[in-house]
Amino acid sequence: MSRPMTYAMIGGGTDAFIGEVHRRAIALDNTAVLVAGALSSTPERSIQSAKQLGLCHDRSYGTYQELFEREQARQDRVDFVVIVTPNDTHFPIAKAALEYGFHVVMDKPSTHTSEQSQELSELAIKQNLLCCVTYNYTGYPMVRQARAMVRDGSLGTIRKLIIEYHQGWLATDLESSGQKQAAWRVDPSRAGLGGALGDIGTHAENLGSFITGLEVDSVYAELNAFVPGRQLDDDASVLLKYKHGAHGVITASQVCIGRGNGLSIRVYGDQAAIHWNQESPDELLYTQIDANTMTYTRGGPGLSSDAQISTRIPQGHPEGYLEAFANIYRGVVEAIRTKRDGTPETALSQLIPTIKDGAQGVQFVERCVESASKGCSIKF
Ligand SMILES: NC(=O)c1ccc[n+]([C@@H]2O[C@H](COP(=O)([O-])OP(=O)(O)OC[C@H]3O[C@@H](n4cnc5c(N)ncnc54)[C@H](O)[C@@H]3O)[C@@H](O)[C@H]2O)c1
């Protein structure tokens, strides 16, 4: 039996959003144990958060630099590092982690520029380390089912993708209230080039690529900032042309009053279509030409092996966001074992999103911003 893996978290202090989601997802399968952290932007708050999470005093670090230096020197150094800080800090933290020899799991958008993501990708290869980017929606069993069905030809040739990610939480000037998640997301120096485009448009782009395997050829984007004073878009509409002829539409908006996390994808082939919606994630609708729509259900009959290995409990008991996130971490741990112990690659490890996908997401943002400013379509 190998010992359970251990991890350190950078960011994700007790006042943060996504760090806690990562911790819960990892704990769901007990894939790894949190033993170290540099959890906040100031040493005092980092130590305070570490205390609240019950970390040992000698592994509660004030800064990420201190964490990497001291963890590297330990016999029982952590197996991997999870980076859940605001976007502007991802690149220096991930670069340092890889240089110190730690496997990395980082949240999206991976970096501010696609060159930075490319640099991380090359560094990870050079160091033989994993660099995963948590495009967590790829962890849903029925998204994996959709991918398997596109790949086995159940839709025929893909013609059209319609991907929507709509939220309403930035429909007002929330940032002025001091709400921290809103404040950094509307600040270009912290969020990067994209507002809604970078925050949720990158999830939409990644979902389309993951399911269909299609590569984007060009984009034509319109970006709006509806809330006065915003420097970044809070609403994005993008027309995409894919290589081999398919077309797509991505609409990503954070001013859609009443919407929570309305992520959905429709893929139309010349033989059939599929529709998946994040807010009913256990169902995948499938319609063949001249036939009634049928519903594939998580845990039900006729599913692909990728969907089956990504599910835990029987059909009818709902699974959701945390389980999908946890599926990414199951793949991460298996991918690290492959690199560390030379064990064969597993089906789950082959499904995890990497920094290559991260680079593609950042490139998508860059090309859309260029397109919107020039008013023309931009090649990838
Ligand atoms: N995958 C998803 O669905 C998803 C969802 C939400 C957020 N995210 C991404 O996760 C990241 C964090 O988002 P959030 O909403 O949790 O932000 P947040 O503001 O709630 O939390 C950020 C945390 O990072 C800490 N931090 C900042 N600088 C630091 C540094 N130098 N060292 C250590 N800690 C530092 C802050 O103190 C805070 O604890 C962003 O990149 C965001 O895009 C992804």
How does the SSE layout of this entry go?
Layout: E1 5-11, H1 18-29, E2 32-38, H2 43-52, H3 64-72, E3 80-84, H4 90-99, E4 103-106, H5 114-127, E5 131-133, H6 141-151, E6 158-166, H7 180-185, H8 188-191, H9 196-212, E7 216-224, E8 235-242, E9 247-253, E10 262-269, E11 272-277, E12 283-288, E13 294-297, H10 305-308, H11 321-341, H12 347-350, H13 355-374, E14 378-379
Helix pairs in contact: 1-11, 4-5, 5-13, 6-9, 9-13
Bound molecules: nicotinamide-adenine-dinucleotide.
Explain the overall architecture.
The chain has 380 residues and is an alpha/beta fold. It folds into two domains: 5-137 and 325-354, NAD(P)-binding Rossmann-like Domain (Rossmann fold, 3-Layer(aba) Sandwich); 140-313 and 360-379, 2-Layer Sandwich (Dihydrodipicolinate Reductase, domain 2), CATH 3.30.360.10. 37% of the residues lie in helices and 22% in strands. The protein contains 13 helices and 14 strands. A nine-stranded mixed sheet has the order 13-12-11-10-6-9-8-7-14. It has a five-stranded parallel sheet with strand order 2-1-3-4-5, sandwiched between helices. The termini are far apart. The model has no long low-confidence stretch (mean pLDDT 97). Bound molecules: nicotinamide-adenine-dinucleotide (NAD). Residues 10-13, 15-19, 38-41, 64, 84-87, 89, 107-108, 134, 136, 180-181, 184, 199 line the site of nicotinamide-adenine-dinucleotide. Nicotinamide-adenine-dinucleotide is lined by residues 10-13, 15-19, 38-41, 64, 84-87, 89, 107-108, 134, 136, 180-181, 184, 199.
